User: Which sequence fits this backbone?
């Protein structure tokens, strides 16, 4: 039965991701929105729902280290594994806004959160995030959304005035998509997200049961299946996006998800209950910051302005090394 559930969950993930990507792309076309914006908002936030649920419930239940560890592990997984896989399939071009705003913001927010955790020892006598930190993160998140929407509006006005936008910054062209009605678009997004959330939950449960039957230790299961399970929606959505030649949506999904994790999820969780680092070390935090820096380095080195297959290979090797280090420390 577990093998049957595993296959069913994978089918739900693929179908849900298809609906989500197609519905989101249709809205982008209808309202002249860029694929990146849709990826960073609707797709990125939607696919981070499992992390939000896990971290919020963990904070309420007093499992603060799980709430933080879920975000740190997911962000590392998102960049090194998911972008590694998607860019290996198809190089992803960066836009000017990606390089000037989105990716540097991801680096800056990562550093700010780590600094807040370190300052906790001064203010509260323990490493972690307090309620004031949580409120600050929520304010930054609101400012990020406002800035992204404002930039999108400027691009739309520039296009209406006949100005030529830099390559890659253009909003989605108006064309007839798979979903012609707004109601159907919204339904596709809602059911797509539902399929991703339920499918990822079913996948984690069935895969964990199979691994236990095969004699795999619970520690290995937690570090691989469970940690990656909450990021399965991002993985499948990004892979589906690049197969549909929507690399910017895949990039927006990951950058948006990482910012969503750091700002909204940790903001909500630490506002509910102050979070302590627990078994999460500064090495884990360092790898998370390094993942954000690596994404930026790929954007500015050699003036390629793209995440190519060489970068993707390096990302996958780095993730394999990090996972090996984790397992070796058990």
Assistant:
């Amino acid at each position: 039965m577990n093998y049957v559930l595993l296959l069913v969950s994978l089918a739900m993930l693929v179908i849900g991701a298809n609906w989500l990507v197609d519905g989101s792309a249709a809205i982008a076309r209808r309202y002249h929105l860029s694929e990146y914006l849709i990826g960073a908002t609707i797709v990125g936030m939607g696919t981070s729902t499992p992390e939000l649920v896990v971290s919020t419930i963990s904070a309420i239940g007093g499992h603060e280290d799980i709430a933080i560890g879920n975000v740190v592990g997911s962000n590392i997984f998102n960049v090194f594994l998911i972008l590694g896989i998607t860019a290996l399939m198809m190089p992803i071009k960066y836009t000017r806004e990606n390089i000037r705003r989105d990716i540097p913001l991801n680096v800056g927010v990562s550093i700010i959160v780590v600094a807040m955790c370190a300052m906790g020892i001064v203010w509260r006598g323990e490493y972690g995030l307090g309620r004031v930190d949580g409120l600050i993160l929520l304010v930054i998140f609101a400012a990020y959304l406002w800035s992204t929407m404002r930039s999108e509006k400027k691009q739309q006005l520039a296009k209406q005035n006949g100005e030529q936008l830099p390559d890659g910054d253009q909003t989605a062209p108006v064309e007839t998509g798979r979903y012609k009605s707004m109601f159907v678009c919204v339904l596709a997004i809602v059911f797509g997200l539902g399929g991703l959330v339920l499918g990822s939950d079913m996948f984690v449960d069935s895969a964990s049961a199979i691994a236990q039957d095969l004699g795999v230790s619970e520690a290995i299961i937690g570090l691989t299946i469970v940690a990656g399970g909450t990021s399965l929606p991002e993985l499948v959505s990004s892979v589906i996006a690049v197969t549909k030649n929507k690399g910017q949506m895949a990039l927006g999904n990951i950058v948006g998800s990482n910012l969503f994790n750091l700002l909204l999820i940790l903001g909500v969780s630490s506002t509910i209950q102050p979070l302590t680092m627990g078994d999460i070390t500064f090495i884990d935090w360092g790898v998370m910051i390094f993942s954000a820096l690596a994404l930026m380095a790929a954007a500015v080195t050699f003036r390629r302005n793209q995440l190519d297959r060489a970068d993707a290979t390096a990302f996958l090797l780095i993730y394999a090394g990090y996972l090996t280090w984790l397992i070796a420390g058990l």
The first strand starts at residue 92 and ends at 93.
